[in-house]
Amino acid sequence: MVGMSVLRSAAALAARLGPLKSGNTVANLLTRTVPRTDKVVVRWGHGKKTFVIKATGFYDRRFMKYFLYYTLLTGIPVTIVVTCVNIFIGEAELAEIPEGYEPEHWEYYKHPITRWIARYVYDSPVKDYEKMMAAIQIEKEKADMRLAELEVRRCMRQRGDGPWFQVETLNKDLIDNSYKSTPDN
Amino acid sequence: MPSDHDKDAYPEPPRQTPVVNKLSALPDPALILSKLFYYSVDLPVTKFREAVVRIQSQNKLVYYHQKFRRIPDLTECEERDYVCCYEAEMQWRRDFKVDREIMKVIQERVSACQAREGASFEQNCFKVIQLYEEVMKNFLSRYGDLGAYASGRKCLMKQKERMMAAQTQNT
């Protein structure tokens, strides 16, 4: 077994210093010089850097990739739609209101997309006006009722002839008047 | 194509293109450049515009100018009639918008006149500047210093102050 390990180390040495390996010429083996690789002669190599060292652009490129993707995902369809509307449909022209014709509320706008929004998304301004006036009317009635209630409270408290501000008193029939009838008690 | 602007409101100065008097047989570089600009930019743009107008004239939309009825003013409303006050307020806001647009038109006239005349605009567009000053004075006396929360009620109070000041000045 010892002989086996010696053989193995000898085989490794022979493989390292084998005649077919480069740099292992007879002269080298004999004189035991190590081949120097830093002072190797190179003639007219190109000055272009093949290993460029710079700061990472990975995060910036990833951000720009996702930013452009998500903005253009809706940006491009919207741009196409708006361009087509502007080219093929075009803005409206001002005209006089014909006799006896009541224009719809969206026919008072110029751009076709504004007209579409006024027609299908928003309520008509007449409806908004009426809604606001209805809210004001309700609030006015509430305020009037509150003022009337205060006035009624004041009158009923003062005059005492109304159903409010009545204080429950004892029944007159429960009073025992029997001892009051004779004066000498 | 949209119609051109009112020529009386924004008058153009008379054209002063000189008569061409060629003294040399060499080609005129200004003429060459102008022709180049015409064929490379002006003509394609005009052709594109005409094509677009031809497409748009098939389905033409129309819009109208909305006319609102006149409503009893804030002074003609009873004391606690809030619906009447709301309608008067809306009418006042519409009138305020109209007055602002009038101011914009007059300001645009003054700036157009100034751009047209150049260095001697104080003399040449005297009438326009006079009109602008008068309209601005009236606008400010009615709507100036009302603030961002301006309302018909505040404007009415301002008018009352003006009338009171005029009365104290007269007596």
How would you explain this protein's 3D organization?
The complex is a heterodimer of chains A (185) and B (171). Chain A is mostly helical and 185 residues long. In chain A, 52% of the residues lie in helices and 1% in strands. Chain A has helices at 2-16, 26-31, 58-89, 112-120, 125-159; one strand at 93-94. The relative contact order of chain A is 0.03. Chain B is mostly helical and 171 residues long. Chain B has helices spanning 29-56, 82-117, 121-124, 126-143, 152-170; one strand at residues 62-63. The mean pLDDT of chain B is 91. The chains are: A mainly alpha (185), B mainly alpha (171).
How would you describe this structure in keywords?
heterodimer; A: mainly alpha; 5 helices; B: 171 residues; mainly alpha; 61% helix
Write down the Rg of chain B.
Answer: 26 Å
First-to-last CA distance of chain B:
60 Å
Instruction: Provide the low-confidence segments of chain B as ranges.
Output: none
Rg over C-alpha atoms of chain A, rounded to the nearest angstrom: 53 Å
Summarize the structure.
Chain A is an all-alpha fold and 185 residues long. Helices cover 52% and strands 1% of the residues of chain A. By secondary structure, chain B is an all-alpha fold.
Topology:
The complex is a heterodimer of chains A (185) and B (171).
Chain A: H1 2-16, H2 26-31, H3 58-89, E1 93-94, H4 112-120, H5 125-159
Chain B: H1 29-56, E1 62-63, H2 82-117, H3 121-124, H4 126-143, H5 152-170
Helix pairs in contact in B: 2-4
